[in-house]
Amino acid sequence: MIDALILTILMTSVPLILAATGELVVERSGVLNLGLEGMMLMGAVSAFALTYTSGSLLVGLLAGVISGCLTAAIFGFFVLGLATNQVATGLALTIFGTGLSGLIGSDFVGKAVTGLPILFPESFSNIPFIGVFFALDIIAYLSVLIVFIVWIFLFKTKYGLILRASGISHTSSHSLGYKVLTVRWCAVLFGGMMAGLAGAYLPLMLTPHWSEGMTSGRGWIALALVVFASWMPSRIIYGAVLFGAITIMQLAGQARGWTIPPQFLSSLPYIATIFVLVLISSRGSAKYLAPSDLTRPFIASK
Amino acid sequence: MNENKVSSNRNNQIKIKVCMIKKPLLLESRNITKSFGSFIANDQINFDIFEGEIHGLLGENGAGKSTFVKMVYGLLEPSEGAFFWNSKKISIKGPQEARNIGIGMVFQHFTLFPTLTVIENIQLALSEKISSPELRETIIKKSAEFGITVDPDIYVRDLSVGEQQRVEVLRCLLQNPKLLIMDEPTSVLTPQESEQLFRVLKKLSKTGCSILFISHKLREVKELTQRATILRRGCVIDTVASSEVSTEQLAKMMVGSDPQNVKPKSVVNSDDYLVRISGLNRPADNPFAAPLEDISLSVKAGQIIGVAGIAGNGQSELMEALTGEWRSTATVDVFNAFGTDIRNYSAHERRQLGIGFLPEERHGHSAVTNMKLTENTLLTHHNNPVIQKFAIVQNETLENLTDEIVHNFDVRTPFQNPLASSLSGGNLQKFVVGREIIKKPRVFFVAQPTWGVDIGATKFIRNALIDLANNGCGIIVISQDLEELFELSDEICVLFRGKLSESMPLKELDSEKIGMLMGGEFSPHFQRGQ
What we know:
The structure holds two protein chains of two kinds. Chain A is mainly alpha-helical. Chain A has one domain (about 1-215). Chain A is built from twelve helices and no strands. Chain A is globular. Chain B is α/β, with parallel strands linked by helices. Among the domains of chain B are: about 50-75 and about 90-100 and about 175-255, P-loop containing nucleotide triphosphate hydrolases (Rossmann fold), CATH 3.40.50.300; about 275-365 and about 440-520, P-loop containing nucleotide triphosphate hydrolases (Rossmann fold, 3-Layer(aba) Sandwich). Helices cover about 35% and strands about 25% of the residues of chain B. Chain B starts with a helix and ends in a 12-residue tail after the last helix.
């Protein structure tokens, strides 16, 4: 019973980890992409549609990653190419993704696919206490690996340093001769791929069917998670588990007829984020945590 | 060496005014022109610098110095003309390329990343792969060599401005540049920090590195450089040997006419105190702030009180207490203006009483840079019934008022009503000073009125302040510039570690005495008249 609950919590946190890690890299480069929900939905519908038609999960996952990346490219075109307002463009992207995914997915509502298999042999998951950690699919393990790789990249490599630098001060980066827009394009596309993969995880693993708007706010939770993690990759993992637990509690509570209103539980991740923001700003170092050039469009002088 | 031969041939062809320099040419510019639309920022600039030479580039704000060096560093593309490096024609496509051929630059507004450590900041500027421990060793070695100590693992945000500049310099030195460009390096430094920087630069030039030193401070250029090129309104006026000209001659070339002198201040004959402050205490609200202790400060009609002191001794805290950005009835005994207790008055209410303020920071504190000049005028004039009728802003009146400020205070704008950010520092300062003075305040609190402002504008602003005082306004000037305080003040007091000395009449003071006070040599040993 408890194992099943923990397993659901872990699986719920996987798409949050993936999407938030992508968004963290985007924000570290100085771009705020509020279109996370839209990109995830595009990833979800493409992954489901292609898995269903081709019968191959791998094709489906790839389709999810690619369509997330393409949706991000639209965002990049406006925000980086035309230097539009990032908040407005991001919101528009979410609305766009929600609508378009609904349209594409209308033929696939009510159909089902077989989800990803569990990576380890079943006997592993019978080990007491820790068995539940062996009952996950490959993407779940991959998500933790990606967080680790992103951490190495951001804090141990020169390219990661350049990426962080362009988020802190694009004018300084530019005068040192770095191509700020190229860096940000790479980050935005990476963020799109991760959001697409996170989206693909939903209809292929979490609930093996497609329904319109099935992300149900996970994109926004992932955005809050980046702030909650104060832009540090490692903190995303436990933040995601915490937020995943809150989401699951809400469902489990409903099933058991708890008296706590589910609306209150679903608002908890955001309350937790605000709480964390208050906590870090009371220490007076809040302004040092967020990339200082976040949302500021960069236009090079000639 | 072949290259030397070629350049020494060139030396013979070029008319050299300074015979003592016989070194080969490093960089030469021929007819460099840069235009932005119809505005010509650099007009046919011919310039050269020898190996190991310290060359000054002198000019007022907006004369085109920064534009020129940005082209040398590859940040801007010249519209016409060419650069020659070791007598070979080059075109510098970007900063990376500039660094590759051996040009380093220290910017006026630093290009550091505050939330990265010193070592990370330096790593970003180096093109070759080098591991962190190795780099740490190199940094320590190099900083010892030039006598600039910096902790490689500290965050840049925790460094003082002077220390940040050392990081910038160090970052350039690690690239072993042949030419180092310093864009107005001393405008943010205390005199002691400047001295230290000059020692580093002189040492560096002895190793064969050329230094292009940009400044509008004449004394520095004379002290440090071998030759100086003077720019005015985008044109080269002359290149001279620094030791052979006087600062007056340099000033004349730079400004184009003899700079205005500051007019004498008339004697105060009023006994009415406009503002009386005593027992002002302010606890420090962060570890870097100076607590204010038992400050007493008063100003009469027509009087200018100067507050001297080295930065960080409580100047910004005092200014905030004067403007009402910080206020307290609990820790302040008396703060009266015109007989009214204003301890609890907000900045807005203080303005309504007829008090004007001008904080130190132009960008974002005294002016909103992303707003037009008219909007910036509105920010402190919105109470004027002529400007605002029935809660509607009278745009035409506002524009006329803005034009009046621009005209009366000689603010040079690129076009009618631009964004505040498009004005050069000196011009924006003239604008914000004018914006306050035109309101005819009865009391005026001003911090660093001419910080980073060129000679012409400085004299202009000082004259405007003296005019204001001669018409009966009481002024408190907080400044780190002693020359300024001696030109303006009737009485001077010194702020040291949050304590303010008694104010002393100007005639009892000289810079030596003030210097002692700035170092903390007052009370109980120093009493008035001793």
